[in-house]
Amino acid sequence: MVASSPSGQAKWSSKTAFILAATGSAVGLGNLWRFPTEAGTNGGGAFVLLYILCVVLIAAPLLLSETLIGRHGQRSTIGSAVHLARQSGASPAWSAMAVLGLIANTLILSFYCVVAGWVVYFIGTSGMGLFEAISGGNALGGAYPEQSPESIREMMPALFANPGLLIGMQSIFVILTILIVARGVKGGIEAAAVWLMPAFFFLLIGITIYAAITGDFARAVNFLFSPDFSRITEPGVMSSALGQAFFSLSLGGGAMIAYGAYASKDTNLGSTSGTIAFADTAVAIIAGLAIFPIVFSVGLQPDAGPTLMFQTLPTAFHLMPGGAIVAFGFFVLAFFAALTSSVSLLEISVGWITEKFGVSRSAAAWGMGLVIFVLGVLSALSFNILADQRPIPFIPGFENAGWFDAFDGITSKLFLPLSGLVTALFIGWVADKKIVNAETGLTGGALSMWRFLVAWLCPLAVTAILVLGMFPQLLG
Ligand code: PHE
Fold it and tell me: What are the residues whose beta carbons fall under 8 Å from the beta carbon of 15, sequence distance 6 or more?
C-alpha cells in the first residue's frame, strides 16, 4: 500500500520502465569491463560455465528475494528490510544485510566512477581519433590513424601516471551521476534508462556484428565456451565467478531492493527478475563475443586483466578497418551502461538518507556524491602516488592489493556474497512465508523450486565458496 509508505515513495511509470531501469542497473561496466577481464584471467570457458551456474542457481533467486523486499516495504533498502522483519515478528537486526549492502555499494560506486572516468577519457581520445580519420579522408579506417600501436598502448599508463587527469575524469562522471539522481526516480533515473538502454542495445548489436564479420569469431567462441575442466575446481575461479554474478546483477542488499521499492503491486516480480537476470547474462556473453574476436584477430592475448578494454581493444581497433568509428561507438556504449548503473548505486544511499533524515533528494545526492568522490580518489591515486599502500594486508588473499583492488575485491568477493547469504537466510527461513510467497508472483513447482534454492542452495553454496575463497588450502 503506497499510503503506508512513510516517504511517499515514487513509482516507475510502467512495468517496462522498471525492467529497463533494473536492467540498466545490472548491465554496466560489470558486463563490458569486469566480465571479460575475469573470464580472460580465469581461464575463459571454465569461468563462464561457473558464472552461468552461479547466476541461475544463486544470483537469480536472490534477485527475486531483493526486489520483493523492496516492493513489499516501499521504503529505502534498510527501511524495507526492517519493515519485513518486523511484520514477520523477527528482529530488525536482519536488516544487517541492507546495512552491509549500503556500505558495499558506496565503496563500489567510489571505484566505479574511477573506471567510468577512464571511459570518459577514451571517449575523448577515440573521438579525436575519429576526427583525424575523417579529416584524413579515411573515415572507415582504423582507430587513432596518427598513432602507432606502441603509442596507443601507452595511453593507459600515461593516464594512470597523471593523478590530476584521472581525478578530473572521475569527477565528471560523479557529477553526472549526482545530477541524474537529484532529479528523482521518474524524472532522472527512469528517463535516463529509457533513453540510454535502447541506445546501448543498438550499439552493442552493431559492434557484435562487426566483430563477427571482421574478427576471429571462432576462436572467441572456443575460448568462452570450451571449459578447461581442471580449472573449474579452483577456489579462486569459483569465488571470482560468484563475486562477478553478484556484482553484475547489482545484488548484495542494495540496488535491487531500492528499485523494487518503486515497482507497482501488479508487477510480477518472479517473471521480471527472470527477464532482468537473463538480459544481464546475455549482455555479458554478447560483450565477450564482441570483444574477444577483435582481440584475437590481431594476435593479442585475452588475459590482459583490467587493461583489456583500455589497452588491448584500442590497439585492436587501430589495426582494423572501420576501427575509428567502432572504437568511438564502443566507449560511448560503455559510458551509457556505466551511467545507468552508477545512478542505481547512488540511489541506495540517497533513498535511505532522504527517508531517515528528511533532507532533500538533491542535498542527499550532492552530499553522498562528495563522500564517494573522496573515497574514489584513493582508488585513483592507487595507480600512482599511493601505489605502494596495502590497506587490508590482514585479509587472506588481499596481502598485495592496493586501494583499487582492495575496494573491488573486498566488495564483490566478500561483502556482496555475505549480504546475499543473510538475505537468503532471512527470506528462506525467517520472513513470513505468506507475505513472501505472495510477493513473488510464483506458484506451484516454480515457487517450490525458488524456495528450495533460496533456503538451501544459496546459503550452502555461498558459504562454501566464501570459505574456500578465503582458505584455498582447504581443497589441498
Ligand atoms: N551491476 C553493475 C554492473 O554490472 C554494477 C552494480 C553493482 C550496480 C552493484 C549496482 C549495484 O556494472
Answer: 263, 264, 266, 267, 272
